[in-house]
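ugh finaly. both done.
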Amino acid sequence: MSSGTEWESLVGTAVVIAIAVLATVAVLVLLRLVAALVSRRLPWVRDFARRVRNATTATALVVAVWIAMAITAPAEQGWWPAVSRLFLISTILFGSWLFAAAISFGFERLIEREETVLVGPEARRRRTQLLVIHRLVLVSIAILALGTVLFTFPEMRAVGTSLLASAGIASIIAGLAAQSILGNLIAGVQVAFTDAIRVGDVVVVEGEWGRVGEINLSYVVVYIWDERRLVVPCSYFTSTPIETWTRRSDKILGTVYLDLDWRVPMDALRAEFTRIVEASPAWDGRSSSALVTDAQGGYVTVRLVMSAKDSDDQWTIRCEVREKMMSWLQQEYPDALPRTRVEFGPQSDSASASSTGSSAS
């Protein structure tokens, strides 16, 4: 082939590629305009179009260039099969990206709808399950895409056949090597679908109080109250007892203990406690009580119990009651505050007589 012919074929290929790219861009712009028109009645269409825009553009351009080169001179070259395989791999990867973006948008819309319909523990349970299913679907898409890419190579097909022939040994080795990983994955699914914990639950893990912020396939992230993050393997929640404050309801009782002197006026203390609780916006009105629960070591223990609609209000009202009761006792009944007594006095007559007789003998 002469240099002039090569130049003409190169120019022809470039022109076809340019036409294909322009046509693809025109179609994408048209689709964007259609989405803008439809979104006037269906607002979610605009969000969907924005979510899949980049993946759609990349996939469409790769396919357009691939087709343009396949129908022109490069298809007759010896290097074309290798380049064509690269285009195929790119199409698989970008197509998987597009599919994953669409799936993610669907799950996010479903989670938002569930949160508007359901409240409380049921909403947290459904959100947790949907999040885990979402991650499982994304992982499955990634594995399928990678497997499809590998099987585009004939050499990999031969390797796959040989692996199938020795599946027994391979499965044993893989099982032993991935026991911990697979155990965490299975535990993650178990945690989500057995309703043990949910995103948003208040829990105490390893002595730390916090909320379940993320449930992934292999680990759970607990948001500690002081903005630290506790990362715990999923298998921990299936093998270790944990304390949860929101298992069936967000409502919870709060307790404040006061060690006071025996001279504390319980009637006045109970009346002041009732006044403080009833004036607090954090009290939900369900229950409150003030009782002496212990008396030993020179002190009496007064237990103040108050209810709240959730753990945040429970913490607030406990601190409020503790602080105001302390101030009230200091101002009105300082004698009721705890104190240590040490009594000094003369010896008794019997003790003195015993001591005198002992010395005379």
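ok and the 2nd:
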Amino acid sequence: MSQDSAAVPDAARKLAARRRREIVAVLLFSGGPIFESSIPLSVFGIDRQDAGVPRYRLLVCAGEDAPLRTTGGLELSAPYGLEAISRAGTVVVPAWRSITQAPPPAALDALRRAHEEGARIVGLCTGAFVLAAAGLLDGRPATTHWMYAPTLAKRYPSVHVDPRELFVDDGDVLTSAGTAAGIDLCLHIVRTDHGADAANALARRLVVPPRRTASDMGHQRYLDRSLPEEIGADPLAEVVAWALEHLHEQFDVETLAARAYMSRRTFDRRFRSLTGSAPLQWLITQRVLQAQRLLETSDYSVDEVAGRCGFRSPVALRGHFRRQLGASPAAYRAAYRARRPQGGAPETALRPERAERGPMGPGGAERFSAAAVAGHGPAAALAAADAGEAGKPTSDAFAARIPETPVSRSAGRPVLPSQRERPVG
């Protein structure tokens, strides 16, 4: 993560005397998924000092009035309320029940107050929507489950959303992608607080890799899942499956609505309620992902890729590709091949250089210049392939960030390869 000199003082905000980083408050809401909710409870709530893991003090807080109902109809009773957050130096929001609902104002006020007093605020998966609603992600890089990233970027345009990240550490505000990426971020917090030995010992106890990389996970594996697992029992599942199998054909949302025997309006409403995304945006995203895969695995020209992904013209492909991934198709292919010479493991990476951080106004989208972290291959490839387009702004919502070794915004904080990886869902 590139440092921003104006933002560093915020990241280094002094922690209030009554707050301590090892006191971790986990904010739970009714309707939250139990798996994401259990991650910080397991990481920070169990005494593993016998294994060399320093102990945290856990405060499980109800973000709203009880009872808190979660996955499968279970009811939870949190021992603390929002007032307990005032003692925590680390506050974790593991998930939010619906990206279409606004979080409770009292919980947002508690998060803002904690942040103002120097607490570290963490959002796992859809918890990023709560942080964004509190204004804590304004002008910052962040991630969430890649499926919800377009919605987060659209609803909060001042947030620099990158759906291709495993997690993002922006100093005093951290976010992770979906589900298992929350474990990676929590391990990263332990590593930051107590070092690699403690994090590795905890990973052994949890029986998870201490530090995952893109090569460990595979390049495409976590880009293929397009919808929540729950859709399997929904009547729209057959329509979605058909769409994914026929991306090479030119069809629109009207076609999908007709296959579902619904009006366009009803189909839009049902699709959005099920996925959190408009069907047109979802369809475009799937076509872009398919184009991304073909650019990585084939020698088709950009024009041929456009046709094989259902775009009506190469111009349409280039426009959508740049908006979602922050680079032209040719530039992306050149950078990808430079990073993975002859099919081997990545040897070099790109780092986006952020000239200015802040809300994006009309014509004020962020401009990124590619810089090689190691060597000159990918930077030169990107510059050559993207010649003539350097002056065009890229989307602040989907910047092409594929670095392997980031730079943390926290002064003096060790840099971790796992900090900028592909999301899992």
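summary for the 2nd one i guess: The longest strand covers residues 20-28.
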